[in-house]
Structures
1.
Amino acid sequence: MNCIRVNTGIPYDVLIRRGILRDAGAEIKKVKPNTRLAVITDSNVSPLYLHTLLNSLEQAGYRDIPSFTMPAGESTKSLENAGLLYQLLSQAKISRDCCLIALGGGVIGDLTGFVASTYLRGIPFIQIPTTLLAQVDSSVGGKTAVNLPTGKNLVGTFWQPSLVLCDPDTLSTLPEDVFADGVAEAIKCGMIKDAVLFDLLAHQDPQTHLEEIISRCICVKRDVVEKDEHDTGDRMLLNFGHTMGHAVENWMQYQQRHGQCVAVGMVMMVRAQVAAGMLAPTVLEKLLQICQKYCLPVSCSACWEDLFEICRQDKKSTTKGIRAILLRSIGDSYIQPFSFEEFKTFLRGGDQQ
Ligand SMILES: NC(=O)c1ccc[n+]([C@@H]2O[C@H](COP(=O)([O-])OP(=O)(O)OC[C@H]3O[C@@H](n4cnc5c(N)ncnc54)[C@H](O)[C@@H]3O)[C@@H](O)[C@H]2O)c1
Ligand SMILES: [Zn+2]
């Protein structure tokens, strides 16, 4: 088993092992003994894994565990559902000394974390991520959020989990496109900080190396989160490919998956850097090859001018310009501030390449 300690304000462990879901009760007991638990999950995950989790919790001696199954899908991450959960938790007499468990993908993790951080001014929660994206990315780092009709993740908190349990076996039931979303984030982690991870993804069968891939991604995320828990500096490196990726997502009216849009975003940035003579052309070749291996798209039908305008108007852009994430090589990244005009010229170069 891999155990990764994340040293944020209150430190916590991320445990990665095939089959750990069956031992969740024993692991949770080590960090939350004599605590009442409540589980939040979604309608796809519930029939697959809720029973195993509840069994394991009961075997470890936990009793009277309410579970709440939310509809699967991004629209579940809403203030309305947070409100509904506050009521359900209160009716189930969940008090300040209880602990929530998020069993599901990033949607359930973000919603449960948000509810945990605000209900009764904050109660502990545990993440049991069941998508690759949630295992390599969203379950670690303590960002929680719900969406508003005007945009994604616009209301949220920083609230670290007490424990994260990653069971790679749960990924066997994921639809292929959902799995590929997580691969795109793993490629991103390799590109920004871990060339060995990138090579592993490029040359090996990911299914036989899941524990190592997940662990390496979590180490990348841990390193930046420990330096910058509240996202004011280094943590931005995790946005590699995301500035343009979010623009693509927006342009596609959220009809294309996040990982696919991030792949397009990474390619656009690398292409522009190569065109500007800032990066070796082999980096672009390797990125294109790895995207092909995982059936991730490398371009989209939007023109770069439209995507640039979306970036400029993004609610999360500053008024001064864009802080882009660039590469020195695979595994080595940095933050580069651009004015909007400079960024426009940079993107134009990539388009002409
Ligand atoms: N907090 C963060 O730092 C952070 C980082 C990245 C992404 N996110 C958020 O994560 C969300 C996306 O996460 P996601 O891709 O996991 O989406 P998701 O939670 O919607 O899961 C994707 C789909 O897979 C299903 N599913 C989950 N586990 C399954 C399993 N083991 N077998 C079969 N089906 C399963 C879900 O029901 C859903 O239909 C977005 O809302 C995004 O904003 C948060
Ligand atoms: Zn992402």
2.
Amino acid sequence: MMLTEIQHPDHAGEIAALHTGIFPPDQAWSAADFAALLNQKTKKLLGLRKESELIAIAVFQLIPPQAELLTFGVARTWQRQGLAQSLLTHSMAHLARLEIEQLFLDVAADNTAAISLYVSLGFTTDGCRKNYYRRAGASDIDAILMSKNIFNSLLS
Ligand SMILES: CC(C)(COP(=O)(O)OP(=O)(O)OC[C@H]1O[C@@H](n2cnc3c(N)ncnc32)[C@H](O)[C@@H]1OP(=O)(O)O)[C@@H](O)C(=O)NCCC(=O)NCCS
């Protein structure tokens, strides 16, 4: 497994294909969305490849000394093998080298898998945004706001 930084808009199609396989249709981002992100210096896209296949992706917005995790996922067939933990751990080290001290994220209140992952990595809850996520054909879902001091975590 290899940590890879994706910088070129030519990769937008493969990232979108991965994202579409992970998220429901109303939440998946398109190749155009990823191409736009890849053209912005404030965004950082880190992934994991198995041989040449992209199997996990994390997209960050950098606002030094803070960063925000914008989207994150592991291909369905590769889940529950520690890859999310590995990608986030390596990403936090990468971001810390860019002088990022605090990493923020929001997660749907019903996403128990992701919440357990973030808690296991030392993220703590800062608050809640009521009915933040709109879901096609379902009730709105609260967003749980979480953060972690990644500078300190690297020292421990
Ligand atoms: C959430 C997600 C990224 C986890 O990826 P993963 O590679 O399967 O996670 P890992 O194997 O690294 O798991 C690490 C820990 O997270 C938690 N976890 C992961 N998947 C879980 C699940 N389905 N149920 C409960 N806990 C889970 C566990 O604590 C796990 O540790 P353990 O395996 O020792 O019990 C993956 O399920 C995914 O891509 N989901 C869809 C997209 C998504 O929800 N992204 C997050 C948006 S905020």
